[in-house]
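--- STAGE predict ---
source: upstream dedup step, 1 unique chain passed
mode: sequence only
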Amino acid sequence: MQSSQIVLAVITFGLVAAEVAGGTPVSVKRLVVWDGEQANIGAGWANPTTSTIKPQTAEAHSGKTALEFKFKGSNEWLGAGWNWFKFKTGTNVGTDTSAMKNLSFWIKTKGKAGNLQVNLLCNGNVLDTPQEHTVKVAVSKYCPRFPDGRWHEVVIPLADLNHIKGFNPKIISEIHFGFMAGKDTDGSFFIDDIAFDDRAGDPPPAAQTAPTNYSVVVARSFIERVPDPNNIHWVGQNNSFSWQAGYIMFAMEKMWRWTGDPTYFNYIKKYVDEQVDDQGNASRFSSNALDNFLPGYAITFMYEQTKEEKYKIAANRVRNGFINYPRNSDGSFWHGDWARHQLWVDGVFMGQMFLARYGGTLDDSGDSFGEVAKQMKLALQHCRKPDGLLLHGWDESKQASWANKETGLAPEVWSEGLGWYAVLIADVFDYLPKSHPDYPVLMSALHKLCLGLKEVQDPQTGMWCQVVDKCGQPGNWNETSGTGMYLYLFKKAIDKGYLSSEEYSPVVKKAYEGIIKKARLNEKGLVDLVDCSSIGIQNNYQAYISQPKEVSTFAAFGSFIIGTGIMEKP
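--- STAGE serialize ---
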């Protein structure tokens, strides 16, 4: 047994537990099994052969050397292990961790990765038998921010690495890393300072500190949750050519532009290629509701990036869906054929966000911009209140159960509904020429909307409520999706010079601090978003606030990502 290696690797460092607990200083024992310097013995394995694990000096957390698990593969398990006894076998060969409480290591991620898992292996007479492994645990459970490209400490209680029958914690010799790769996965995990310690209580602050880049953590978690974007649709349905997938692609494009990570681009391309065949057909598209037009935004994006004719043909077909689309007498679009004569502010985003981009890329005549401005102005004309906020909808026929029998208006300003319009008015000026006659009208509407939202922000949490302008009334509650959308509007408008940074930066700071508290890790190591609401128009205030506080809706993921992402972008 190489006991000399282990003895030399015992490092005692003081006050760590005392600093965490605030009690009497105590020393903490730490067994370092690999740090590239004093503890530098070992050998590794990797699977498949396109992957490797070995020491290198380009990256290190401490000293000059760290391990690099370099991986490459598609739709397969990628794994590696490091054995600090060079695969020697025997029941007397290994590290005694029986007096230790935690496994710890430092990690830095580079490139496209997945939900990394880790487990330990004890030694024995026969190398690498199943009974000698612990269970696997997700690194993200203990360090949600580990994929963000920075060094982070991961501290895993050994109690979580449940022992399988036959595992002996007195002769541990190897650590395993692995994950299920998606298509064209390529990158590295740099790993340093692998150790065991006897820190008591909760994991230290380094393991508990919140992510520095929530948007990356949540976006990656979403892709891991739904690796095939064709599965983004309502439960019980199977058509992903609708707003849910369209909005996720909208958010993923922004992440690609903000981070440069090809993971997001590839995810969008996978989705678009599932919707558009080689002849440019988009067979799942139906022009019977505005919700179904939003995926055209991603198709137009893909044409911009690749210039492939099939994407142009498909985008034109989506655009032509407006030709015979039903309208009210003033020209406003119906929300859908099941919502006759009804204008919903969320539907304005679904149709006009696509049409604005199409106008900027494929419409030389400029007719698309005229339609976009018209629909946005009609929503303002019918739904805007004196404070700049928009009610959820308007029914020209006044027949809907929610419609005021005199005005046809919906009763309340709903968080996510107004949020859709907020995102549209934030982005429309990226496409609408300054020379367009309605540019100043819509810019004025942006200013008025932002002022109105500023006045009704929850002063305690920085968020906005389910019924936006009645935050202090009984039963109202902070809603996550709408808050992400408003955060995006304010920050985008500040960055573009539409709003005063001095006046509105405190608004976005409080909103960001509020919304990040709605992200929670679940038992699978994935991120959930709480206090969300994706609903239709309701009959009254009580009906809005009585809606279930949903968890992890598609809209909330998109909104959280764009809201936090624009705050965290370089």
